[in-house]
Structure formats: structure tokens, C-alpha cells
Amino acid sequence: MSNAELWTAAVEVLRANDLGGWTKPAPRLYPYQWSWDSAFIAIGLVHVDPDRAARELDTLFAAQWADGRVPHIVFNNDTPAEDYFPDPGWWASEKFSPPAPANTPTSGLVQPPVHAIAAWHLAQVAGDAVRDRLRGLYPRLVAWHQYLVTNRDPDGHGLLVVYHPWESMDNSPRFDAALARVEVGQLPPYKRRDTGHIQDKSQRPTDAEYDRFLWLVNLLKAARYNDAAVQKTLPLLVQDVFFSGIFAAANHALSQLAGWLGIESDRPELDAWATLFSKKVQQQWDATERLALDFDVRAGTPIRVQTYAGFAPLLVPDLAPDLRDALVKELFGLRFVGAEGFKFAAIPSAAPGSPGFQQRSYWRGPIWPVMNWLFWWGLKQQGEETRAEELRQANLNLLLEPTSRFAEYLEPYTAEPLGSVDQSWTAAVALDWLAQDKAPT
Ligand code: DGY
Fold first, then answer.
1. Which of 67, 134, 221, 393 is the most exposed place for a label (fewest CB within 10 A)?
2. Ligand 1: which of 33, 110, 166, 370 to mutate, most ligand atoms within 8 Å of CB?
3. CA 163, CA 182: separation in Å to the nearest integer?
């Protein structure tokens, strides 16, 4: 396949998944609007249709809760409920939580705050074509960040807590120990829908994990999705280094967007948040693991696993040069990108051979092109242009394989496509990578 053919195919995936103002992440597996999917979709779509890209963020933020949270799923179409589970009735956010929107069903969880990074990217690529929409979006982005600072880091540590693996990386080994401690109570019978779409169950989380995922939602509902109550009662609480690294970067991006819009008043606060989270994420670096670690709040211990979340400091502003060098060395060393036998020199979601690694299972080892994009972006922020370019080329070569079909994730040794094909965010990052050859952004 040529680059031009890849471009055309990526545009076609986004067109086919477009439901008018927003894009479903995948044709069948994810039939509603997902929060961070939409942000990455906007990052690619801006090269094709800037106004539509900005609208992707607008439609997502239209379902923002009164407390500023941006829900991880917006159930904004009439997809038959049989296609996805847990369905809006399971979440019942409008019934249990006063700040939830009354007319649009949503989940009560959040996802990593990549939205301001996307918005600033749109401004840089499309300029005046998106200025008015971004001006409208801007206060909503600030409210979202304010929600995270106030409610997900109430003591001002500089690390945000997550309540559920769905807020970060689902079945990643990062959550194994914390999840194993969750005792599942009386769950009503339910039927998984994901394994109806993806028949090879080894690619998806296990049934035992699903029981825990759903039980956690029940507990969140019982706490009325109220952050203070959740933080007192929920058995799973993790200070998430990856989420927090993204947040540091997003505050820096939002401050730059504010400057571009001529809004100076918020910038000192946004810059202060960027600095606080940047410092703390860097302090999570563990000299033994040679990665930055999450912290399991309930167990009171750092989470010692080897996943690509450990490279979160590569995303933050003002990264210390020594740490940058150590991170780049680890990332491109034998544990990750340089692992023996990999078909393409891309970043796997977990280090081969490390506890919990499984090369076919979702977030436990496969290559996620969209996460490769994020770390590629991070490397560029850190001035690591040569390494960034190597990573871009490796990922483009992977996506150019005719079998790849914009898969959600791919097996690192064989490049077999896994999960859904025609995944929107994979197509979107392909567009942004291809656009680098057309015009510098
Ligand atoms: C899923 O359905 O697998 C999602 O990751 C939950 O958001």
C-alpha cells in the first residue's frame, strides 16, 4: 500500500464511522461517543475537515456534567442496546447523580484529558478556520481541568486518582493487583457484548475482570458518582501516572491555547497546574524499575509493573534532561521498542516477559498505534526529533501492511490485527503522521 492509499483509506474509515457531528470509535465494538477517542479523532480529522474536527470536541463537551467532568461515554444515538454493554441503564447517571446531564445518558467515569492537547493541535494546524469554535470550547476545557484538580487530586499532590481501569488502560497489568482485591458482591446477570463482536476471547479482558469492572460501577452508582464519597468507600483507588502526565501536558497546551485566543487571565493558574503535575510525575520515576510508577492508594504501595504508562514523564513540560535521557534509553532499549523478535520497532503496551504480559490481550502487550502517536508527540515536545521520526516511520510501516486495516491494536511479533479493525483513532493518527510529510505542523 502507498502512503496516498493509506491516506484515502483512513479518510474513508473516519467517514464511515461518522454519525453526524461525532464519530464512533469502531463500527460495532464501540457504537457511542467515547471521550478520548474523540480527541484523537479530531487530531487526525483536522487535516481533512477542520470545522468537523472542532465539532467532534463540541459534541463531546455538550454532554459535560455540571461539575465539569467529561464523561467517558456519551450515549448519544439510538444504537440497539444489544450492541454494547454496559448500556445506559446500567450507568443510570442521570438517575443517581445531580450534576449529570438530564437528557443525555452518559457513563459516570472519565478518561485521560487529552482534549486540550487536541484543541491546541487544531489551532496550530487550522488557525482561523477553528478559532471561533475553540473560543466557544475554551471555558469548557478550563472547567474540565478544574474538575480534575478539585475532585481527582483534592489534597494537591500533583497526581490524579482513577476509580476504574476503564478510566485509563482497562486490563493493563497496572491494575491487576488492585483489581484482584475487589470482592465482587451480588451482580445481576448480564451478557457481555464485546465478545460477541470479537470472538477470539484472548484479545479481550476476562470474565473475571468484567465482573470486577461491573461491580465497581455498581459501587460508584451507590456513591452517586460523588467524588468525595467514592474516595472514602471505593476499594480501588490508583494515583495514575499516565493520566497525570497527560494532564501536565494538557495544562501546558491549554495555556498556549489561551494565549492564542488572547485570554491571559487564566494562564498563571494553568501554568501552575502544568508545573505541579509535571514535577510530581517526574518524581514517580523509580530507579529500580527504570520507569515512572502508579501508586496504589488502598495498598499504600507503588505499582511495580513494566508498561508504557511508565514513560509518562516524556509527555510533561520542563522535563529534566537527565530523566529525559534515561526515559529515551529505556523506551528504545531491549525491554520495549528494541525487544527481540518484534516485527516493527513500535512501543508495546507492556514489556515482553514482564509479569502480566500477554501479546494478544488488549492492553497487556499489543501495539496500540494511538498510544504510539502520543509518545511520538511527547518525544517531539522533548526535542527528540530523531527518535520521534524513527517511531513515526515504524508505525507507518506497520499501518501500511494491507492486513493492518487500522486495527485497534496489533500483535507485536506478527503484526496480526487485534480487537476491532477500522478503529477511528488509529485512522486519525495515521492521517496526522502522513500529514507530517505534506506540511510541517
Ligand atoms: C470497553 O468497552 O472495552 C471500553 O474500554 C470501556 O470504556
1. 393
2. 166
3. 12
Q: Cα–Cα distance between 76 and 222 in angstroms, integer?
A: 24
Q: What is the pLDDT of residue 220?
A: 98
Identity (one letter) of the amino acid at 252?
Answer: H
Q: Among the atoms of ligand 1, which is closest to the Cα of residue 170?
A: 5
CB atoms within 10 A of CB 99: 16
Tens digits of per-residue pLDDT, 343-398? 999 999 999 999 999 999 999 999 999 999 999 999 999 999 999 999 999 999 99
Task: Determine the Cα–Cα distance for residues 146 and 419; give it in Å rounded to an integer.
Answer: 34
Q: Is the pTM of this model over 0.70?
A: yes
Q: Are 91 and 170 in contact (CB under 8 A)?
A: no
Of 115, 103, 101, the closest CA to residue 148 belongs to: 115
Cα–Cα dist 255/120, whole Å: 9
Q: Which helix (H) or strand (E) holds 34?
A: strand 33-34
- 170 pocket-lining for ligand 1 (C-beta < 6 Å): yes
pLDDT at 249 > cutoff 90: yes
Mean pLDDT value across the chain: 97
Mean pLDDT of 293-298: 98
Using the atom order of ligand 1, give the atom closest to the CA of residue 111: 7
**Protein residue closest via CA to atom 6 of ligand 1:** 166
Cα–Cα distances in angstroms (integers) from residue 255 to residues 119, 152, 281, in the given order: 11, 20, 19
pLDDT at 440 over 50: no
Say how far apart CA 328 and CA 103 lie, in whole Å.
47
> For residue 374, what is its C-alpha cell?
502520543
- CB of residue 408 inside a 6 A radius of ligand 1: no
CATH number for the domain whose boundaries are 3-435: 1.50.10.10
Count other C-beta atoms under 10 Å from residue 82's C-beta.
10
Closest Cα to atom 5 of ligand 1: 166
Q: According to the model, what pLDDT value does residue 441 have? A: 45
Amino acid code (one letter) for 287 = A
309-344, pLDDT tens digit by residue? 999 999 999 999 999 999 999 999 999 999 999 999
Domain ranges of the chain: 3-435
Asked if 62 and 55 count as a contact pair (C-beta separation under 8 A), the reply is no
Q: Which of 145, 117, 119, 138 is nearest to 264 (CA)?
A: 138
On the question of pLDDT at 6 being above 80, the answer is yes
